[in-house]
Design brief:
Residues 93-107 have a biased composition (Low complexity). This is DUF3040 domain-containing protein. The chain crosses the membrane at residues 42-60, 66-85. This protein has five helices and no strands. The chain has a domain at 10-91. By secondary structure, the chain is mostly helical.
């Protein structure tokens, strides 16, 4: 349901007064601080991944144990980056995909087909 013009102006005035009175609270309620933190973490994870590649390649020249450390740095950075990037995407307020009813035929989506096969296999229907 769309807001009327008067309601929209009143809402903007309330937001402006909240920002003026308590900017920390307004920033926390809007979620922009969390998005910035997760974006920064994702960027640092990307940098850590590049550092891991450099350490891995340097370890090939020097000692194999250094290559293992480089790989672990890459793995940790990748996991941190994926986790942070997913949280940035979650804060984007995109609507979630509705769950499909159990008795619907499989759709063209690959994962839906796999889930339907799994359900049939668990029920004993092959």
């Amino acid at each position: 349901m769309a807001l009327s013009e008067q309601e929209r102006k009143l809402l903007e005035q309330l937001e402006a007064s909240l920002m003026a009175d308590d900017p920390k609270l307004a920033d926390r309620l809007s979620g922009t601080a969390e998005v910035r933190v997760h974006r920064r973490r994702a960027a640092l994870a990307g940098l850590g991944f590049v550092v891991g590649i450099v350490v891995l390649l340097a370890g090939v020249q020097v000692h194999p144990a250094i290559s293992i450390v480089g790989f672990l740095i890459m793995l940790g950075a990748a996991l941190l980056g994926i986790n942070s990037w997913q949280r940035v995407g979650d804060d984007g307020a995109q609507p979630a995909k509705p769950a499909a009813p159990k008795n619907t035929p499989p759709t063209s989506d690959f994962m839906d087909k796999l889930e339907e096969r799994w359900r049939r296999r668990e029920q004993g229907d092959r």
